[in-house]
Design goal:
Layout lengths: L2 H9 L11 H19 L3 H4 L20 H7 L4 H12 L6 H20 L4
Helix pairs in contact: 4-5, 5-6
């Protein structure tokens, strides 16, 4: 093989058995492969619990929320105290400790007032 032939085969991917694929064709093939994977994985642990935010430990009181409290807290950059207000106000109707959860909301709101805005004068 001459230097020119060697260089051409290095430059031209089709000489190596490769083929060019348009972006649209690639995405179509990729989506088809992903659908096959999903169908094969449905019902398995990996499919059902692929990340920590898709499961809940110790109850199902957040199950029917349109927006999960953790998603709201993280996306809005809420701190610990503010996050607890969201958490307890979200679950007070469904967990069975309604009054206690509302008392916790009030307590965390009072902590926010005291720690962030100072004590009343």
């Amino acid at each position: 093989m001459s230097d020119k032939e060697s260089e051409e085969s290095w430059i031209n991917p089709e000489d190596r058995g490769w083929k060019y694929e348009s972006y649209r064709d690639y995405m179509k093939r990729r989506n088809k492969e992903e659908e096959l994977l999903k169908r094969n994985l449905q019902g398995t642990y990996e499919y059902e619990y692929d990340n920590a935010t898709s499961k809940q430990i110790g109850g199902d009181h957040y199950k029917n929320c349109a927006i999960q409290p953790i998603d709201y807290i993280v996306k809005n950059n809420l701190d610990f105290l503010e996050g607890n207000v969201v958490k307890y106000i979200t679950r007070h109707k469904t967990k069975g400790e309604g009054r206690k959860d509302i008392e916790k909301v009030i307590h965390y709101a009072e902590l926010i007032l005291e720690l962030k805005y100072g004590k009343e004068k």
